[in-house]
Each structure stands twice: as structure tokens, then as C-alpha cells.
Design goal:
Number of strands: 0
Shape: flat
Distance between the termini: 49 Å
Radius of gyration: 26 Å
Strand content: under 5%
CATH class of the largest domain: Mainly Alpha
Structural class: mainly alpha
Largest sheet: none
CATH superfamily of the largest domain: MetI-like
């Protein structure tokens, strides 16, 4: 019996297959580009208008600037205390990230590698804690801070931000550390390493993508938290840059160029943190979801 073999037919089938794959990828890329444009284009529009005057923005909102004039940035540095607000934000957000990574990493290691009583109950309580709105705790926390005398200090934001992000950090790091092979840990124990050495020398380096992911999300949530800053640090000397941006909107509402400049200045640290840590984000978010 003669086989029905046609090289031309096989070639046509292969060609149709790759055309179908290419069209699928084309559609996916177009959807992703359209989605990304909803974030990128407004940011580019604001950056463009930061080099223009209010009159130019009102007359032609989408036109390019005649020249890259830094007058708005100079006015921002003279009229609003940007450097002090930057310092406050970086101190509070940076300290929050360090504390969350330290305590969240240790808690995640314990939850991933130890078996103890009430472990399932604690896991459930961690999930429940994620469902509690932060606004519910503002009044009691504020009263505690008044009695402690730390309102209008860096601790007034560092403590609630750290506590609020520990739950997410513990879940994220615990899931990632659970995927680490037990043979590595057993070999370290046989070599005489203690638990702290295993955590710092094995689990922390292996879990760098998860730590980077937790770090960037913690930084974003802490850096962008306007509500807590308005409540716990009303003193201008310790207010973060998000409060400054809110004040610019209320005090200089008619100066559109200055508002655009304040937005760009506020966004710069977030973009830098993301650019530095972006290669770890997807790996940290996905690898811990699969145990292996």
C-alpha cells in the first residue's frame, strides 16, 4: 500500500501553522501594547507638560514644548521644599522595606520549614489579616501613638507601614521558600550549620527574586500612602513627598506646569526602583507558586 506522502502538502501545513502562531502573537502584542499605553501615554503627557507654561498647556495640551525649559523644575525647588520631602520619604520607605524584609523573611522561613502547633490556624489568620482594611486601625493606632509620643516622627509611619506589609511579605516569602529543595537544607545541617546560618547563607540568596518582589511592592505601598501621612505626620518638617504633591495641587492649582513637574519628581524614585529590580519581579511572583 502506497503511503500518502506529499512534501508540498506537509510544507503548506507547516507554513499555515506558523502563520497562525504569528497572528496569535500579533494579536497578543497589540493587546499588551494598548494596555501599556493607558499607563505610559499619560505619564509621557505629564512629562511633556512639565517643560511648558500654563498658558501653553491650556492653548495646546498635546503639543510638544518649544524647548526643554527647566523653569518649572527651578520654581519647584524654590517654592516647595522638595529635597526635604524626598529625604523624609526615602528614610521612612527605605526603613520600612528593610524591616519588612527582615521580619517577613524570618517569619516566611519559619512558616515554610517548621512544623508546630497552631500552624494552620496562624496561616488562616494571616489570610484573614489581608482582608482587614487598613483604615479600620487608624483611630486606635493614632491614640496609641499619641500616648507613646511618636506622632510627627518617622516612627509614626514606619511602624504602621511595616505592620501592614508584613502579612503580604510572610505569605510571599513562605510560598517561595517552600519551593526550595529540602536536600540543600539537610546537607547544611549535616555540615554543622545552625538555623540562622541556613537562613542567611542559603535561603536568603536563593530567595532573592522573592525578596526583590516584596521589597518593590513594600516600597511602592509605603511611598504612595497619602492617607497615613496626613494623619500621623501633619508636621511639614517630616511629611513625605506624597503630601507635598497634594499641597501643590491645592495651593498652586492654576499652575499646571508646576503640578506636572511635581508629579514627575514624585514618580522618579518609583521608576528607578522598578528599573533596578524589574528582572526579579516576574520570577519572584511566579516561581513560589509551584513547589518543586
Amino acid at each position: 500500500m502506497k503511503a500518502n506522502f506529499s512534501p508540498k502538502k506537509i510544507l503548506n501545513n507547516i507554513q499555515d501553522y506558523f502563520i497562525e502562531i504569528s497572528m496569535t502573537k500579533f494579536v497578543i502584542y497589540m493587546v499588551l501594547i494598548a494596555w501599556a499605553s493607558t499607563t505610559i501615554l499619560p505619564l509621557l503627557w505629564v512629562a511633556n507638560n512639565s517643560f511648558r507654561t500654563t498658558t501653553q498647556i491650556v492653548d495646546a495640551p498635546f503639543s510638544l514644548p518649544d524647548s526643554f525649559d527647566l523653569a518649572n523644575y527651578i520654581n519647584a525647588s524654590e517654592r516647595i521644599n522638595i529635597l526635604n520631602s524626598y529625604k523624609n520619604s526615602l528614610i521612612m520607605s527605605g526603613t520600612t522595606v528593610l524591616l519588612v524584609l527582615l521580619f517577613g523573611g524570618m517569619a516566611g522561613y519559619v512558616m515554610a520549614r517548621f512544623k508546630f502547633r497552631f500552624q494552620n490556624f496562624i496561616n488562616k489568620m494571616i489570610v484573614v489579616a489581608l482582608m482587614i482594611p487598613a483604615f479600620v486601625t487608624v483611630v486606635p493606632v493614632y491614640e496609641i501613638f499619641i500616648k507613646m509620643g511618636i506622632v510627627n516622627t518617622y516612627l509614626a509611619l514606619i511602624l504602621p507601614h511595616t505592620a501592614g506589609n508584613l502579612v503580604f511579605a510572610t505569605m510571599m516569602l513562605s510560598a517561595y521558600m517552600s519551593s526550595v529543595s529540602t536536600e540543600i537544607e539537610e546537607a547544611a545541617l549535616l555540615d554543622g550549620a545552625n538555623r540562622w546560618q541556613i537562613f542567611t547563607r542559603i535561603f536568603v540568596p536563593i530567595s532573592r527574586p522573592a525578596f526583590a518582589t516584596v521589597g518593590i511592592f513594600t516600597f511602592l505601598w509605603s511611598y504612595n500612602d497619602l492617607f497615613s501621612a496626613l494623619v500621623f505626620v501633619p508636621n511639614k518638617s517630616v511629611q513625605p513627598i506624597t503630601v507635598l504633591l497634594n499641597q501643590v495641587k491645592s495651593q498652586y492649582g492654576t499652575d499646571l506646569g508646576l503640578q506636572a513637574t511635581a508629579v514627575i519628581v514624585t514618580v522618579i524614585p518609583v521608576l528607578l526602583v522598578y528599573i533596578i529590580l524589574q528582572k526579579h519581579i516576574i520570577k519572584g511572583l511566579t516561581q513560589g507558586a509551584v513547589k518543586g
